[in-house]
Every structure is written in structure tokens, then in C-alpha cells.
Amino acid sequence: MRILVVNVNTTQSITDAIGAQAASAASPGTEIVPLTPFFGAESVEGNYESHLAAIAVMERVRAYPEPFDAVIQAGYGEHGREGLQELLDVPVVDITEAAASTAQFLGRRYSVVTTLDRTVPLIEERLEVAGLSARCASVRASGLAVLELERDEGAAVDAIVEQAARAVEDDRAEVICLGCGGMAGLAEQVVERTGVPVVDGVSAAVTIAESLVRLGLSTSKVRTYARPRPKRIVNWPPPAA
């Protein structure tokens, strides 16, 4: 089984971390292929960058030359999953939905701890679209930018733990979701300091993708995610500036 794990930003070190986390969660015989988009922002922290990343991820997957069995979109709260589902005949799993759906098996209510406050509405909207918001106690911001997560892991864990503890105490959350692909690999440290289950979206997405492949299941093509209709697309890729 081969699973493509696509970072939504263009920072290679984040792709490497996501790939390592995905590989650690994969079953024997599953090949994890981490991919970095050809274009886009170095970190995704707003609507413009998210929509740009959606196109970049789709184009990166379309350019992959070998067969694959599933795709993981490794950006929390980002756009584009629906487009991938239209384009592909294999399962597509988004880490936002993978984390939240997994959390619901572990407790009555879950909270998400993410990066900057400006990303909170994006995550709330994506959970609403996915039908996963009813049991979400809160989405909390750690105040850290995406690129800060890898510069000082200790400070990142401290900030995440602080908000996770507030989610448990103030928002009555029973499970915490790590709300950024760049937080891959931090779950164990957060568990140790909060005492509640902590779901890493990358790991959850790998497990879900493997299960769908083994069950022989993929996205329905009856209506919502039918393949795009053949038509002429003008000036794509866009001409160089």
C-alpha cells in the first residue's frame, strides 16, 4: 500500500516531520510518500494562503507519476479536500476530520489546540462543513506561528499544554486534538502533561486511510464528488509574471 502525505506549505522541514510521523503510525507494508507543493506559502495561516494551498496540493498530487492507494491532506482546517475527492478514485483523508472523528471515539467532547488565533475561524468552519462541530468544546490558539513550532519545541509544547489544560478545565473537553500538521510528533509530551488522550491528525489519518484501502472503499462518485466535467481551462498553469 502506498499513501501520499501532502504538506500544505512549502517548508521542507515540516514535510519531513509530517512524513516521519506518518511513517511511525503506518502498518508494516505501507509506504509513506511525503510531498511538498511546487508553489505556495512557507506556512499557511489565513484564507488566501489556504485557498492557494488547495490548488498547490491538488497540482502536486496530479503530478505524482506512480500509482498510489490513498492521499492524506496534511493541513489543519485547510481548503481543498473536496477537490481532491473529485479528482481521485482513491480515498482522501484530511487530518482535520481524521483527528476530530477519532477524538469522538475517546470522549464526549473534544477541543482543538492550534497555532494563531486567526486560524481558529478556519478550523471551526471546516469542522462545521464536515459535520464534526457538535461535539467540539472549543478551538483554542496557542499563539505560536507555524514556523515557530519547529524553532523551539519546548516552548511549543508549553504553549500547547497551557491551552490544552484550559480546554479541559474551562471548556470541559475530554480529548485534545493537535490542530496543525506542524505539531506532528508532540502528542506524547502533551499527554504526559495533561493526562487526557491527545490525537495527532497525521497519525489518525494514516490509520483511517489504511482501513479504507483494506476495506476496498473510496469516495462516492454519484453526485457531490463526481469527477470534474471535461472542459477547456484557460491559462493554466498561469503565465510567468
TrEMBL record:
<protein>
    <submittedName>
        <fullName>Aspartate/glutamate racemase family protein</fullName>
    </submittedName>
</protein>
<dbReference type="InterPro" id="IPR015942">
    <property type="entry name" value="Asp/Glu/hydantoin_racemase"/>
</dbReference>
<comment type="similarity">
    <text>Belongs to the HyuE racemase family.</text>
</comment>
<dbReference type="Pfam" id="PF01177">
    <property type="entry name" value="Asp_Glu_race"/>
</dbReference>
<dbReference type="InterPro" id="IPR052186">
    <property type="entry name" value="Hydantoin_racemase-like"/>
</dbReference>
<dbReference type="InterPro" id="IPR053714">
    <property type="entry name" value="Iso_Racemase_Enz_sf"/>
</dbReference>
